[in-house]
Write a sequence for this structure.
């Protein structure tokens, strides 16, 4: 890397393996360490600024107005009463421009616009703007809207037979290989079961929020968004302005889990209102509106067929799924995603069909696909093991593929079996008893296991790193930290490669004035954005070597000093009036040449009350591999979060749609039950050592989602082991268990 | 009206509909307390009023003339953290940070309740409450963390409780496989 000049750009497309990593050869010894989050002190003292919290002058408050029919046309919006109320400035709508629903993650076009024809109950149709939040809210509730209602499609069961094949897209909806029927016929052991999962909501703690301000024809939107680079393009196209007139700032985001990947209706409403009024407008969704008008994870119906020979070798795998979405929307929940590559088996059928329903848009929620798909696959594997009469871990061992069973390409690295074995040892798997036999007083105990798998993806990402005259490094990218630890790991990568104490690295995120990053989603953040920072730092090493007058490989950077040629010089003395470089990573052939994924194994112990059917998770362990772990502390927290999402998914989380109008019935946190502290035991997480040289220069893979993949199935399998009752309709609430429990 | 927040005096004439939370966030520039649901369901808005934890979104500002109100900003600053704030950083008792101010204020109030001998739903002997992980988890269940840092939150609170000479906390028992 010798010979870079100031302002270099160091680009890499992952077309081949990257066996050497500067993270291994550098001397600072900070990478991977469980250091505290560098943004931590601000977060715990209330000094981290989230979207709605920027102190701008003369802000007007917007309150969003929702449609109260499931389908129909707005015939009259009577704003007069509302406008006459004290403090109300205006009632604003723009039927053509307002967003019907949010955009999916990473899209560069506007989402579906147009709200006059109501597409679902709760669609945002107007915004009331007032001098105070209270006045805006009060007026919004008094707004009178008339509709010409029309017929809608609100019930999944009613319409499930009208499911259609999705249009061709990035994730192929169908895969057929061999002959599933023939495979099932030949099988000695067969499972043919249907699992169902309900709609879910990400329920990030920070509601969607946008604070819009126009200056000289340019919009700045302080927004709660995960992917500012593409969100900016979506917003510009929605408003009909060029992208260079839009800036998004998302320095701190209060969780996303997919719900903030694309722009949501409050963004355009705030931007239009701010433009019309000539002053900043803040629009924060009420929690109920987050449930109504952002994205849900689709409900699923999944027919799972497994056929195995006498030895338990799979010869047929069928995973036929039906999910739901609004008419005209391409997105489908890719529930069969992990089924493509998790187990061997020559005869395969994996399908995704969509039922068109007039419900809130379905889109990404943490590990779209695997999170619910593995409920079916890993449940069915557990059933097959029971049917054959072998240990479920042994069954998985017998079906460990040597290569991707569909694409016939090697795995970049895969440690599923070691994860299962390590977990079994640590969790006490050998003490597992036959189903329904471990009763202690009023409680039945059981343990369950499930595999975890989540595809690894690399996304285009850029970052600029500069070194100032004091020898401090500054990282700039519009990448976000939504709780994922991005601030800290980008700081660690920089500190490691440039040989700086972590305190001397300042990380600026979430501002589209900086180079476009990958954004937070799909577990690609660390690998993609981290690689761009790596590449920038690599270029800076070249500049530093040049300034020092030495060969780059012979130079050691440590504790702010440059050491080479029997000299040790403070970095600050070499940088002159500053150094900077930009790093750019892009996906290449490696994605096709190898199957890349993170793996893990979940173990859960539950107790089920024989009188009430109440389920308590007593213990849970996740063992994971995701290439290099960049920060053991934040990585562990990501897995704790995923596993807890799994507990919620297994036991409590269910969005209920009113079959008469599609309305989300339980649209708040009192009725949509996410796990609370008392629902979650002291979960344990362990990482096994792994490096993935095929993935990126960091040798790291995605981690934000693998923790949820399979977690719910482990809980479900533990419930079966405790009770001998197999419920396939998630969540596994007590009413579904009671009939199968022993007579009290 | 007169409000005492974090030891500072504020004069304000809030709308009678303004919650204590919105008074702080929208009128006094104290945005540390968060709004997650506005319905008392998530706990992100937890503050201390005269030493007791409350959901400030469920309390009208006009009810708090002359009360002693403490928000997260009053507990410590990034440069001088309260022991619970420091413990949350050490134990990674948060991820996105949005529920965190409420968690920490809640923990301060909760530890005081324990000190006073108040029992909880899971307390076995109401006359002689004991304190352990289960008690922490139960007593902190009014504060939702969707990132689910719960085990780390329990660790952070436990560490502070152990270092407070006056809170007796039962030693953690290793969970045995199959126990």
């Amino acid at each position: 890397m010798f010979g870079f000049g100031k302002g270099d750009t160091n680009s890499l497309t992952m077309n081949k393996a990257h066996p050497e990593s500067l993270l291994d050869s550098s001397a600072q010894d900070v990478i991977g360490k469980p250091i505290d989050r560098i943004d931590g002190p601000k977060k715990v003292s209330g000094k981290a600024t989230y979207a709605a919290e920027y102190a701008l002058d003369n802000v007007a408050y917007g309150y969003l107005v929702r449609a109260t029919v499931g389908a129909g046309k707005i015939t009259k919006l009577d704003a007069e009463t509302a406008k006459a109320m004290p403090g109300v400035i205006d009632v604003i709508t723009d039927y053509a421009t307002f967003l019907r629903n949010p955009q999916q993650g990473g899209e560069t076009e506007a989402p579906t616009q147009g709200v006059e024809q109501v597409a679902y109950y709760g669609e945002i149709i107007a915004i009331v703007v007032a001098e105070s939040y209270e006045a805006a809210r009060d007026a919004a509730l008094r707004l009178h809207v008339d509709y010409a209602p029309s017929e809608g499609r609100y019930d999944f069961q009613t319409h499930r037979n009208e499911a259609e094949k999705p249009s061709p897209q990035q994730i192929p909806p169908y895969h057929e290989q061999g002959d599933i029927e023939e495979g099932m016929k030949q099988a000695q052991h067969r499972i043919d079961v249907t699992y169902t999962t309900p709609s879910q909501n990400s329920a990030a703690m920070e509601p969607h929020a946008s604070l819009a301000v126009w200056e000289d024809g340019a919009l700045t939107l302080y927004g709660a968004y995960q992917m500012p680079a593409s969100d900016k393009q979506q917003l510009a196209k929605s408003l009909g302005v060029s992208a260079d007139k839009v800036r998004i700032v998302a320095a701190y985001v209060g969780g996303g889990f997919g719900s903030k990947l694309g722009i949501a209706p409050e963004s355009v409403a705030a931007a239009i209102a701010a433009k019309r009024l000539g002053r900043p407008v803040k629009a924060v969704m009420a929690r109920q509106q987050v449930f109504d008008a952002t994205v849900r994870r689709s409900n699923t119906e999944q027919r799972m067929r497994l056929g195995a020979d006498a030895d338990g070798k799979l010869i047929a795998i069928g995973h036929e799924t039906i999910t739901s979405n609004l008419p005209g929307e391409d997105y489908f929940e890719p529930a069969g995603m992990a089924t493509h590559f998790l187990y061997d088996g020559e005869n395969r059928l994996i399908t995704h069909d969509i039922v068109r329903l007039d419900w809130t848009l379905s889109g990404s929620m943490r590990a779209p696909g695997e999170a619910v798909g593995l409920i079916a696959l890993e449940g069915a594997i557990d059933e097959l093991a029971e049917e054959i009469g072998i240990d479920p871990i042994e069954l998985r061992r017998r079906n460990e593929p040597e290569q991707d069973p569909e694409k016939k390409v090697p795995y970049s690295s895969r440690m599923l079996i070691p994860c299962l074995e390590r977990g079994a040892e640590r969790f006490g798997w050998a003490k597992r008893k036959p189903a329904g036999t471990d009763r202690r007083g009023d409680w039945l105990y059981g343990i369950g296991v499930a595999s975890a798998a989540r595809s690894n993806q690399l996304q285009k990402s850029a970052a600029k790193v500069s070194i100032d005259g004091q020898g401090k490094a500054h990282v700039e990218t519009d990448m976000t930290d939504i709780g994922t630890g991005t601030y800290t790991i980008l700081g660690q990568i920089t500190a490691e490669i440039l040989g700086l104490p972590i305190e001397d690295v300042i990380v600026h995120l979430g501002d589209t004035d900086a180079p476009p990053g990958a954004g937070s989603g799909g577990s690609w953040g660390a690998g993609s954005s981290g690689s761009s920072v790596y590449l920038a730092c690599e270029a800076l090493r070249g500049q530093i070597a040049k300034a020092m007058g030495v060969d780059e490989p012979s130079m050691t950077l440590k504790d702010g000093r440059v050491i080479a040629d029997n000299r040790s010089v403070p970095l600050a003395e070499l940088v002159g009036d500053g150094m900077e470089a930009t790093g750019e990573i892009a996906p290449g052939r490696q994605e096709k040449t190898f199957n890349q994924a993170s793996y893990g194994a979940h173990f859960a112990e539950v107790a089920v009350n024989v009188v009430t059917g109440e389920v308590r998770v007593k213990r849970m362990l996740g063992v994971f591999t995701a290439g290099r772990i960049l920060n053991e502390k934040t990585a562990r927290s990501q897995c704790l979060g995923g596993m807890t999402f799994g507990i919620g998914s297994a036991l409590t989380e269910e969005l209920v749609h009113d079959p008469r109008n599609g309305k989300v019935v339980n649209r708040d946190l009192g009725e949509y039950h996410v796990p609370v502290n008392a629902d979650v035991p002291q979960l344990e997480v362990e990482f096994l050592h792994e490096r993935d040289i095929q993935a990126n220069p960091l040798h790291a893979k995605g981690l934000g989602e693998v923790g949820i993949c399979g977690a719910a199935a482990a809980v479900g399998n533990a419930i079966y082991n405790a009770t001998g009752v197999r419920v396939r309709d998630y969540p596994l609430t007590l009413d579904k268990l009671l009939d199968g429990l022993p007579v009290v | 009206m007169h409000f005492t927040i974090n030891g500072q005096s504020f004069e304000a004439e809030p709308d009678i509909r303004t919650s204590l939370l919105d008074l702080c966030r929208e009128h006094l520039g104290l945005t540390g307390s968060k709004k997650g649901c506005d319905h008392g369901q998530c706990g992100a808005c937890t503050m201390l009023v005269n030493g007791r934890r409350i959901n400030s979104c469920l309390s009208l500002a006009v009810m708090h003339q002359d009360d002693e109100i403490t928000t997260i900003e009053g507990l410590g600053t990034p440069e001088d953290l309260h022991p619970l704030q420091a413990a949350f950083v050490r134990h990674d008792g948060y991820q996105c940070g949005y529920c965190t101010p409420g968690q920490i204020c809640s923990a301060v109030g909760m530890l005081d309740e324990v000190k006073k001998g108040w029992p909880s739903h899971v307390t076995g002997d109401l006359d002689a409450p004991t304190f352990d992980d289960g008690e922490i988890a139960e007593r902190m269940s009014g504060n939702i963390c969707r990132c689910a840092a719960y085990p780390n939150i329990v660790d952070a609170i436990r560490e502070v409780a152990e270092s407070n000479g006056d809170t007796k906390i039962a030693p953690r028992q290793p969970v045995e496989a199959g126990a």
